[in-house]
Amino acid sequence: MSDTLTLAAETRDQVGKGASRSLRREGRVPAVIYGRNQAAASIHLEEKALVKALMTGHFFTSVIMVDGQRTLAKDVAFHPVTDRPLHVDFLRIGEHETVTVAVPVVFTDEDESGIKQGGVLNVTRHEIELVVDAANIPTEISISLKGLAVGDSIHISDVKLPKGAEPAIDDRDFAIATIVPPTVSTAEDEAADAEAQAEGSEEA
């Protein structure tokens, strides 16, 4: 289960692009807290503290106490060039409220699977959306590849989920990953490579 994170916040007296730019120049990040049929609260956070929380690797699966309110991070906007956080959306939640979160998937025991024989793990879902109690959000979902051969697939029905957790998608047994055969170059590929090399030699 993820630890609870705490972020200090101050109320934003002014909103808008100009006010947000001014805050960012001061090392602050604009944010909003919404949900639970309450008015949205405009706040700002210290950028360094936010970045530290983001670096934990489980920012989106942790309960975050912000301005004394229990929240989940729902979205973070980043600068397209510098990757600095520009804005954060937080959703208010109750202590044992049922929430939907995207939990990262981690694969283990690769050496005891068809990967050791040259197979390639083709992951179709790096995260699984789970419906869970807000007090019991898992940090990750661990899936063992032990005993799986090339051609085998892992579906959600094969995964042991934490107690009380249910997949958000419940109308189909969706695939999470497949061990596929290694890519084998064909005669045509080899001929094309040889032709490209020959052309390169002539140009040189």
Automatic annotation (TrEMBL):
GO MF: 5S rRNA binding; structural constituent of ribosome
Pfam families attached to this UniProt entry: Ribosomal_L25p, Ribosomal_TL5_C
GO cellular component: cytosolic large ribosomal subunit
Keywords, ordered alphabetically: Ribonucleoprotein, Ribosomal protein, RNA-binding, rRNA-binding
GO BP annotations listed: translation
Spans annotated as Disordered: 1-22, 182-204
Transmembrane segment boundaries: none
Residue ranges, compositional bias (Low complexity): 194-204
Segments forming domain Large ribosomal subunit protein bL25 L25: 7-90
Large ribosomal subunit protein bL25 beta domain segment(s): 99-182
KW Zinc (keyword) present: no
Family: Belongs to the bacterial ribosomal protein bL25 family. CTC subfamily.
Subunit structure: Part of the 50S ribosomal subunit; part of the 5S rRNA/L5/L18/L25 subcomplex. Contacts the 5S rRNA. Binds to the 5S rRNA independently of L5 and L18.
Function text: This is one of the proteins that binds to the 5S RNA in the ribosome where it forms part of the central protuberance.
Protein name as annotated: Large ribosomal subunit protein bL25
Source organism of this protein record: Sphingomonas pseudosanguinis
Source taxonomy: Bacteria, Pseudomonadati, Pseudomonadota, Alphaproteobacteria, Sphingomonadales
